[in-house]
């Protein structure tokens, strides 16, 4: 392994890793928002809204994220959606992970004992009150871990935007391979940086989970 | 307004799940301060009937009235929500599995609904919680979490939580069935205390001795029908219906 080369290029990789972090954070935030909206829709009392929620989930989970990105970035201009690569990446991946997060949140809400909501309704709380005060706080605790799994997948998924030439880790690695002909070193370095990002995130999730459990 | 309406009245209650008729035309009344036990074999519809009273399991047909107001009134969705929430504030319910809120302390379990639904200050809510918990002998555990309590203690807190809304009527669905035998008595004592205070109660139970000692009236249900009803002396000692006799005989054998 060419350690000297790694030492020479790693500052550029660090900069690219920052873009990966940025992408991860933005897509996670967007994903959480979409997930919350999607989950809310799936519990709506209006059938049409429930259907829209379910359609969103099956559309985005039923097709490759790469196709979704290509559709948005390359196909978008044809229907009047003009986005730079970075924005397309954030929106595409955010919507994609949002579909998974919808299901995660829905699952957590469903797994709160039915008797909890019933007890709250019996006391005279409205649907909204019983959801906010009783069901949601318990569901939140249950969803931290599985959302962590979604986020983990999402961080790795940001590599996909290299295909629409966003200059993040994977794209940078590929570019340096072009000039150095050292794929092992370049992918190794990129891999290590992904590992660092994912490990730190994992620790953060575990911390939140522990704290929620203690409460 | 009629002056002589019964306190609780169920008129021709029917409930089906698809083809399965769980309640078949049940009518009954309960007077203010009365304590009524509902007994019957598993699957006879006792819980369904009890849960129809506060519309937790809406009836397919029939009416439920409490103190001159129809609980399951047909109203547009939003109005109905407001109406049923108001009715439910007057109907306390105690579940077999307690259903305490695990993320809240005992105090918060008791104060949550009054704080949200009544105009009371935090201080008044605290006083209310202390009163209600003292009443069920759980004051010392006011700052515990449900997970730190025994089953009997949980159920007593659940009763305090329901009482904090000052209900007119209390419903109990096998409140002691999930408890270890040595914990049953402490809950029964609390229920007896309520009986002495003339709380109107409808109690679904498998405990015939308890029913006999606190109830004014016993209702025996089987297959979605009221088969027999009357004072406990009669229903337990001299049941007229064969199905009641069989049920009580089996129950006695089971208890031995
Ligand atoms: N949600 C439901 N869907 C379909 N069937 C139901 C539902 N809830 C209850 N049932 C059926 O209704 C019947 C009556 O149930 P219910 O719980 O009222 O009986 P129960 O008298 O309370 O019995 P137990 O003593 O076992 O508590 C049973 O046959 C039950 O299987
Ligand atoms: Mg039952």
Detailed description of the structure:
The complex is a heterodimer of chains A (215) and B (256). Chain A has helices at residues 3-42, 47-61, 65-75, 85-110, 114-122, 127-157, 169-180, 183-214. In chain A, helix 4 (85-110) packs across helix 6 (127-157). Chain A is an all-alpha fold and 215 residues long. Chain A contains eight helices and no strands. In chain B, 40% of the residues lie in helices and 23% in strands. In chain B, the strands form two sheets. A six-stranded mixed beta sheet of chain B has the order 6-7-8-3-9-10, with helices on both faces. Chain B has a four-stranded antiparallel beta sheet with strand order 2-1-4-5, covered by helices on one side. The longest helix of chain B is centred in the last third of the chain and has 16 residues, at 181-196. Bound molecules: adenosine-5'-triphosphate and magnesium ion (MG). Adenosine-5'-triphosphate (ATP) binds next to strand 2 and helix 1 of chain B.
Through-space gap between termini of chain A: 49 Å
As an assembly, this protein is heterodimer
Mean pLDDT of chain B: 93
The level of helicity of chain B is 40-55%
Beta-strand proportion of chain A? under 5%
The total count of helices of chain A amounts to: 8
Which properties best describe this structure?
heterodimer; A: mainly alpha; B: 256 residues; alpha/beta; six-stranded mixed beta sheet; 9 helices; 40% helix; binds adenosine-5'-triphosphate; binds magnesium ion
């Amino acid at each position: 392994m060419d350690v000297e080369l790694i030492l020479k290029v790693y500052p550029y990789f660090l900069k690219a890793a920052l873009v990966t972090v940025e992408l991860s954070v933005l897509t996670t935030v967007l994903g959480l928002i979409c997930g919350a909206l999607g989950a809310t829709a799936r519990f709506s009392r209006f059938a049409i809204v429930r259907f829209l929620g379910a359609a969103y989930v099956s559309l985005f989970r039923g097709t490759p994220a790469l196709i979704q990105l290509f559709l948005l970035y390359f196909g978008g201009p044809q229907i009047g959606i003009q986005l730079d690569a970075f924005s397309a990446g954030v929106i595409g991946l955010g919507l994609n992970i949002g579909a998974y997060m919808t299901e995660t949140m829905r699952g957590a809400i469903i797994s709160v004992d039915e008797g909890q909501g019933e007890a709250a309704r019996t006391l005279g709380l409205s649907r909204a009150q019983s959801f906010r005060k009783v069901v949601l706080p318990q569901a939140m605790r249950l969803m931290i871990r599985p959302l962590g799994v979604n986020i983990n997948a999402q961080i790795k998924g940001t590599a996909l935007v290299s295909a629409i030439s966003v200059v993040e880790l994977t794209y940078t690695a590929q570019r340096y391979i072009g000039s150095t002909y050292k794929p092992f070193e370049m992918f190794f370095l990129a891999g290590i940086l992904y590992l660092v990002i994912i490990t730190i995130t994992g620790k953060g999730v575990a911390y939140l989970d522990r704290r929620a459990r203690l409460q | 307004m009629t002056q002589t309406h019964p306190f609780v009245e169920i008129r021709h209650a029917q409930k089906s799940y698809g083809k399965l008729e769980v309640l078949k035309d049940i009518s009954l009344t309960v007077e203010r301060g009365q304590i009524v036990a509902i007994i019957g074999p598993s699957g006879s519809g006792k819980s369904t009937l009890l849960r129809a009273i506060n519309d937790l399991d809406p009836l397919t047909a029939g009416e439920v009235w409490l103190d001159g107001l129809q609980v399951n009134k047909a109203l547009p969705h939003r109005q109905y929500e407001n109406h049923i929430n108001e009715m439910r504030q007057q109907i306390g319910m105690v579940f077999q599995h307690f259903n305490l809120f695990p993320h809240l302390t005992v105090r918060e379990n008791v104060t949550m609904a009054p704080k949200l639904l009544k105009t009371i200050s935090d201080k008044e809510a605290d006083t209310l919680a202390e009163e209600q918990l003292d009443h069920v002998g759980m004051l010392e555990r006011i700052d515990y979490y449900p997970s730190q309590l025994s089953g009997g203690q949980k159920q007593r807190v659940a009763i305090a939580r329901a009482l904090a809304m000052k209900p007119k009527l209390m419903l109990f669905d096998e409140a002691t069935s999930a408890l270890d035998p040595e914990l049953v008595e402490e809950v029964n004592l609390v229920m007896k205390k309520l009986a002495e205070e003339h709380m109107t109660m409808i109690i679904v139970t498998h405990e015939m001795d308890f029913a006999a000692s606190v109830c004014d009236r016993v209702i025996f249900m089987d297959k979605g029908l009221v088969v027999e009803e009357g004072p406990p002396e009669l229903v337990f000692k001299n049941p007229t219906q064969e199905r009641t006799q069989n049920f009580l005989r089996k129950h006695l054998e089971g208890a031995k």
